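Listing S7. Sequence submitted for prediction.
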Amino acid sequence: MRVLTGIQPTNVLHIGNLFGALIPAVELQDEHELYIMIADYHSITVPQNPETLSESILLNAAAYLAAGINPTKTVLFQQSQISAHTELAWIMQSQTHMGEMKRMTQFKDKSGDKADAVSVGLFTYPILMASDILLYDAEGVPVGHDQKQHVEITRDIGQRFNKTFGETFVIPKPIIRKHGARLKSLTEPEKKMSKSAASAKSYISLMDEREIVHKKIRSAVTDSEQIITFEERREGLYNLLTIFSLCTGKSGEDLAHEYAEGGMKNLKDDLATALSDYLDPIQAKMKELLENKDELKRIIANGSVAAEKIATAKLVEVKKKIGVVL
């Protein structure tokens, strides 16, 4: 089936991004027709430094390629290079109800008590996201549990358009990766790992050197219980064992049994080594790719041309359906 996934460009990618988005994308490209979008228009709903944003787009492309994405097999493209995304988003705003947007929990979470001061784009971006998905007739969309609501609103908007104007869009389904999809903060394990956290100690960057990885893992919050067990209630330890499992391929239960009597220090030291070993080849490849930015730009441009053909055809179909093509 056709699958669309993507990531907002950021100048710091962490292992939550790696195991929650990049590695799953590599697995998907072997089974499906995969489109990967660098969602740069989504990133500008909050203030961005233009120079940093440009660098982040290239960094994110390099990360996907370093993780194993094959640009001759998977379409890796830049959202802003395809004007059909924003044009369809305007059309789809007329198919979306204010009540639906007000119920979107991510706007409430991101705006907090400053809802009147944030950009309108932060409020309406789920419509752009829906347009991103519907534009490519994506059958599947990989998301974390916190993003499932965006696929649901996409389904609602697409079904409403189909009912009003006739069958036009494929209605997508969420693909939820259960294991490792939502790594937790190392310092506040009740929260999702995020680069926007107050302290860089809360996440492992893809480009963190071995010494930094070891320091961050050693200082990771666990609990006072002595025996190592793999239980969700022990959030900090559960998170570390999940990361260990993702690095080694061993189950969390097996790792807990292996370190049951060995103590937290041994577990953390071995995890830091395993994680650094896992990141080494990815870091080397990313550095190599970022040294040739012209080649990265060429790959993105080629992918954008391929994606634009599909997006434009779908947009023309939509415009005919609503009556603006004479």
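Caption to Listing S7: primary sequence and predicted structure tokens for the chain studied. The radius of gyration is 21 Å. The domain at 200-287 is CATH 1.10.240.10 (Tyrosyl-Transfer RNA Synthetase).
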